[in-house]
Amino acid sequence: MIRFSHVFLKFDGRQVLKDISMEVPHGTTQVILGGSGCGKTTTLRLILGLLRPESGSIVVNGQEIVGMAERQMASIRAQMAMVFQGAALFDSLTVRENVGYRLWEEGALDDDTIEQRVVKSLCFVGLEDTVNKMPAELSGGMKKRVAIARALACKPKIILYDEPTAGLDPINTHLVSDLVRQLHTEEQVTQVVVTHDLETAYRVADSLIMIHRGEKIFDGSVDALQASDDPRIRTFLRPEEVLAEPGCFPHKDGGIRVVPPMPEKAEQASA
Question: What pTM was estimated for this model as a whole?
């Protein structure tokens, strides 16, 4: 379980997160939606304890991590795994070595057990035949699936995803989204998925929050999100409707601004 209570965070005097509260029950998938720079990825860094809030509480698996010493955070992080936006595979290591890297580094398991974990994790993502390949031999979608296998090999209680389908074609987007859903149903892993991709969000979410300019403006189900009449949410979900008129642009506060045509264009139109 993950719980944020009234979390505030500033960078260089600029408020990045404002009064963020959320709760992710055990075994559920929470999606965090929002545009670029709204504070989505920052929430993952807070969960990992890489950032500390200005104020508020963050509880991970029953433990308050705000103010926790670094050596104590190590045991919390051991329960988590991260799937990075760019997959973050080591180019000089094989797929086998990438997937088993954390396990070999920790040194708690023998080589045979690690090998079994690696193969099982790669089978889960459908890439058992790539075990001896190098990352350069893989497509972007395959790299993302290897990254998921690496996370799964550690048997984490929590998996965090930063834009897991960014840059993928529709087929690989579907495959990665399905893997996130499978981990939810088959492994009962608690998952937090940061994305601005609506298809992915709708497919994997048990619940969603939406962040706009550091503030939470929605917390609920997919159906409730789609039914919202908040102009900021409507613009994000259906820009083709809200911004259909020429000269319409989203305003920084979430509203709409209309830019009048240039004078010479207006004169040409009336001629």
Answer: 0.87
